[in-house]
Amino acid sequence: MRRMIAGIGGLGLALVLSQFPEYAQQYTQRLGGAVDELRVITEDFDRAAAAGGLDRPAALARYEASNDSFLAGRGTSMSATFQRYDQLSATLTRIEHADAVERLQSLPAYLDTDIGRRTLESYKPAVPVTMEGILYAGGGFILGYLVLSGLWRFVTLPFTRKRRVVYR
């Protein structure tokens, strides 16, 4: 009975962990799309500023110096957009250069972002056919098997009889 329950636990955790590489891939795709769109906005702003003989900081300073609250607000909004672009670009670079273990350690950071939540909301499970997916599934099976096997032994400990050793 213990082996069957441990095997079920192993299969369950294997199934769950095997999905992480697919989630990470879908997250990376969404993140890449966001970075691409922010790059377009950033480059367009920089081109418009250059056409006016300004660099980005000087163009933003003009927005901020404006007496028009709408223009001042647009300057603040553009500053936030550039910061987000820099942050998401750095995150994408980190993810693209991370190995499988580093990506797993970053899971809480993935889930704690707007992009991570939206990825999870639209996540589609997939069969792990990559080496990374197979390794996660194998690790999940072993971990699940060992945890449930140990838990089963602990829970049934009060109900096991001690065997008497008879010496002759």
From TrEMBL:
UniProtKB keywords: Membrane, Transmembrane, Transmembrane helix
Transmembrane annotation, as ranges: 134-155
Pfam family, one: DUF2937
Protein name: DUF2937 family protein
